[in-house]
Amino acid sequence: SELDKKGVFSSAAFYTAAIAAISDIGGFSECVELGFMHGSAIADERGENGFGYDFMFIPQGYELTIGQLSAQIKEALSHRTQALRAILPHLKALAKG
Questions:
Q1: pLDDT confidence of 18, banded at 50, 70, 90?
Q2: What is the CATH number of the domain that holds 16?
């Protein structure tokens, strides 16, 4: 991996997701929410579940990579899940008009 080439075996890292909602219902409004998953990037790949860097990312508080964790744990920790939870109240308010 690129980390191996640089002699780095672990480094602080994070995933981030941004979700935006824009509406003109009841007047123009816009909202952007962010989600983060902090942890460490490691040089070796571990696990069979996931894609991208999931096999090289250990979430904060865990010893396994995202690629080794169950789908339920991955979903609960996900940066995308965090962003969706944050924007949900805004979407509910839009739905009420």
A1: very high
A2: 3.90.950.10
pLDDT digits (tens, 9 = 90+) for 40-88: 999 889 999 888 999 999 999 999 999 999 999 999 999 999 999 999 9
How far is 63 from 9, CA to CA, in rounded Å? 15
Buried b / exposed e over 45-67, threshold 16 CB at 10 Å, is eeeeebeebbbbbbbeeeeebbb
N residues, the chain: 97
40: phi then psi, degrees, rounded to nearest 5 = -135, 140
Specify the number of domains making up the chain: 1
In which domain, by residue range, is 92 found?
A: 2-96
What's the whole-model pTM score?
Answer: 0.80
How far apart CA 89 and CA 97 sit, in angstroms, is: 13
| C-alpha–C-alpha distance, residues 62 and 82, integer Å | 18
